[in-house]
Structures are given as C-alpha cells and as structure tokens.
Write a structure and sequence with these properties.
single chain; mainly alpha; three-stranded mixed β-sheet; 25 helices
Length: 467
C-alpha cells in the first residue's frame, strides 16, 4: 500500500564526508520573510498563468519525496511543490521555498532517484540563496523584479509565447540573461550540495549523473534546447563532475523494480495527456499493475466508466488496498450516480488514513454530494490549517458551504471561501472584491466581520507588491 513515497535503499553514510557552505545570516538583498512573500507572490502568479495540475494524490506522492530530501536542510516549511502540466523537461525554484516540476520531467525519468536528483538540485539553489546572493545581477531591481522575469520566461515557454514576451517587456527584459540563469559556479554548487542532500536521503547519487547524460543525448537530436537548458546550463564539465562525485560516495543499492514510481509516472502521463489508450491497453494485457491503474484513470477521463471498471478489476487482483484503487472506484461510482456506493467505497479508507489528503478530499467531495456539508468541512479544515495555500481545499470549502441550508452567514462564508480560491489562483483583485462583498454581507455578525476584515487587510497588503 502506498500512502507516501519513501526510499528504502541500503547505504552507508559513515564513510561519506559532507560539506555544505554556511552562507551566514546577513547575506542577500532581502531577509527571509520578504523572500517568503515573494515566493508566495510567484506561487499565485504561476497558478494564474500556467497549467498547474490540481491532483492531491500526485502532489502528495512527490511532496513526500521532496520533504524527505528537505529534512536534510535547515529550510523551514516550503511554500509548496507544484506540478506544471507541460511536456518540457524542466524544474524551477524561487526564493522563499517555492518549487515546481514539469510533468515532462516526471514522465521522462526512469526511477524516483532521477526525480530526486533534480529536486535536490533545486533545493540546493534555495538553501544557498543563489538568487539573493547574486547582488551583481539585480542592479538595484530586487527579487520582485526577478520574480516577474521568471514568471514571464516560464509563460513564454508555453504555446502562447506572446503572453510571456509581454510580461518581460520593458526595463526588466534587459536584465533577463543575468537574472534568469544561474552562474556556472552556482550550478556546480547546486549539483554538489544537491547530490549530498539526495545521498543522505537514501537516493542513488549516480541517478543525478544518469539523468544529465540521458538529457544530453536526447537534446543532441533536437534542433532546439529545452527550457531546462536555458535556466540550468548543462556542460560536459558539469556532467563529468557529477559522475566523479557520485563515484566517490559509497555505493547505494539501486532499486531494480520501482513499482511505486511506475504508478506515479503512468498516472502523471494520463493526467498530462502524454500517453495513449493503445500504450495503456498493451500494459494492461501484460498484466502490469501501474498500466492497469493508468488505464482505469484514462477511461474515467473519457467518462467510459464500464471500461474503467474492467481495468480496475484487473488491477485489484494485484493489490486490493492501494489508495488509487479507492479513488478510482469512487470516481466510477460518482460517474454512474451511485452515491451510496461511492460513500461506502471511500469512507472507511479515509477514516483509516486520516493523514491522506487525496482520500479525505474525495470523501469530502462525496459527502457534499450526499448533502452532508458540515462533515465535509470538518475534514477539509484540518488540511487547510496545515496549508492555507491549498486551492483544492478552499474549493471544497466553497462547495460545501454552498450546499448548506440557508442562513444569515451562508452567503458571506461562500464569498470568503471563494475569495481564497481566487486569491491563491492568482486573481488577487477579484478575491479582494469577493471579500468586500462578504464584508457587506456579514456586517451584522461581529465575529465573522472581524475575521473577514483581518483577511481583507492581508490580501490588500500583499497585492501592493507588484510583479
């Protein structure tokens, strides 16, 4: 049963020596609090301008690996880990602890160790505050200018390049070369420190060098360079150094059959529409568990619930308890309007694993449809208390409140939950308008008015910082 991805490699750290430079507390243009503010600003802007994948199960599987690596650092809780629905192999990090991976990176990797190598590299850029330390690159512009350039360049990598170009217009464009890319020394430092982080987390350090070499071979056949090469220039020197460094570390026993990662990869390919029914059907005929789960997900996407059930029944012969089986079975029942069956499918699993966000959000979704909004809100609120930036959670709170019986405060609560969805999705002005409306609606309720007023001030203050 997979409730969170973990590494169980055999390795010996006793003979490995680690050296992570102490960058001191007075380095950088902005203090950590301001960096965090900027990271959250970019978080909202990325949600607004890029196709962020909203899938709690996939997010949490990757976040589990990410958090395991992050535990080797002194970083505080990160702003978040986003998955972008883009076939390009790319990843990026922003000051304050915002990290993002493209689906193309997950879909192209051969094992979780390769993904962990990229994660560790990005984490090292943030722990060493490479953006903040590049004082020469900013020329007085500050990190917020960099944030705008970063978002613009990322948007430019999408199909509509004109939108990205528009964001980067003006005086900021001249600084793009220095602000978007890291220096060679910073890249090499991120390679070196990132490899230490991944090794200490139990991942195979050779996988970082492996992924560099695979990418180098694949790009040599292309007439263009993928975005990753522009933001993280790869040289033969870096590849050689990565391999040499990995050779100096005690051996890590590789996983020959990483089924957990195969499930993540093939589900990601379905969600990002980077696979075909023919591919998945072939895996199904080969009795491949990851392929059977992915085929069920694909058929649910197509609303072919009969075919989805057939694929799921095949998968159940391998493992009756995998959370995706529960999630997909619940979706099939919901698609067939079998509400009682859906409730029975997900309720016990969600209660057994109260920490599993995907199962509990699915349970909340079914409870809302079953006209039990209060219970749904109690479930979701626990996760929002831990992460106030969770767009999926706020959306469920809005839906649940909308399903409640009419009351004096219902309209105000629907509006304030809608404002959170809008705000964390990057629509700050719309969110503030929703809260102003909520404020007028709740004027006769002193407690609710105070809550809304406090949140309104926070949003208005954050909106002053322009990208």
């Amino acid at each position: 049963m997979v409730t969170g991805y973990s590494s169980s490699h055999d390795f010996n750290q006793a003979t490995a020596h680690f050296s992570v430079p102490d960058i001191g507390t007075g380095v950088g243009l902005l203090d950590q609090q301001k960096e965090r503010m900027i990271g959250e600003k970019v978080y909202r802007e990325v949600h607004k301008q890029m196709p962020v994948m909203q899938n709690p199960w996939l997010e949490d599987q990757l976040l589990s690996v990410f958090s395991h690596i992050l535990s080797q650092t002194q970083l505080q809780q990160p702003i978040g880990l986003l998955v972008i629905n883009d076939p390009q192999i790319n990843a990026f990090a922003v000051p304050g602890g915002l990290f993002a991976l493209n689906a193309g990176l997950i879909n192209s990797a051969r094992n979780m160790d390769e993904v962990a190598g990229v994660m560790a590299h990005e984490i090292a850029h943030v722990t060493q505050r490479h953006y903040s330390r590049s004082q020469d690159a900013f020329k007085g512009q500050g990190l917020l200018a960099l944030a705008g350039i970063l978002v613009g360049a990322l948007v430019a990598s999408q199909a509509d390049g004109d939108a990205g170009a528009a964001v980067m217009m003006g005086s900021q464009a001249a600084l793009m070369d220095k602000q978007l890319t890291y220096s060679r020394n910073q890249e090499r430092e991120a390679d070196r420190i990132g490899m230490q982080y991944m090794y200490r987390s139990g991942y195979n350090p050779h996988s970082m060098a492996d992924f560099f070499e695979v990418m180098h071979r694949s790009t040599s056949r292309l007439s263009f360079l993928p975005d990753f090469w522009f933001t993280h220039p790869l040289t033969t020197e870096r590849m050689s150094e990565a391999r040499l460094r990995a050779n100096q570390l005690p051996a890590v026993k590789p996983k020959l059959n990483d089924q957990d990662f195969e499930i993540i990869k093939w589900y990601s390919r379905v969600l990002s529409r980077q696979t075909s029914e023919e591919q998945l059907s072939l895996m199904n005929r080969q009795n491949n568990f990851a392929g059977q789960l992915a085929l069920a997900a694909y058929q649910i996407q197509q609303s072919d619930f009969q075919a989805a059930q057939a694929a799921l029944d095949q998968a159940k012969k391998h493992n009756q308890m995998h959370p995706l089986l529960v999630l997909f079975q619940t979706d099939i029942y919901l698609g067939q309007n079998q509400l009682n069956a859906a409730l029975k499918s997900v309720a016990s699993a969600a209660r057994i694993m109260p920490e599993n966000r995907a199962l509990n959000y699915k349970y909340a979704e079914v409870l809302i449809r079953a006209q039990q909004p209060d219970q749904a809100k109690q479930i979701v609120q626990k996760f929002l208390n831990a992460n106030s930036r969770d767009v999926s959670g706020w959306r469920l709170m809005q839906l649940a409140t909308n399903a409640e019986p009419a009351s004096a405060i219902k309209a105000a609560n629907v509006l304030r939950y809608r404002a959170e969805v809008e705000y964390w999705s990057g629509y700050e002005e719309t969110a503030i308008k929703s809260l102003l409306h909520a404020q007028r609606t709740a004027k006769n309720n002193q407690s609710l008015s105070a809550t809304i007023n406090q949140r309104l001030k926070q949003m208005q203050q954050a909106r002053q910082y322009k990208i």
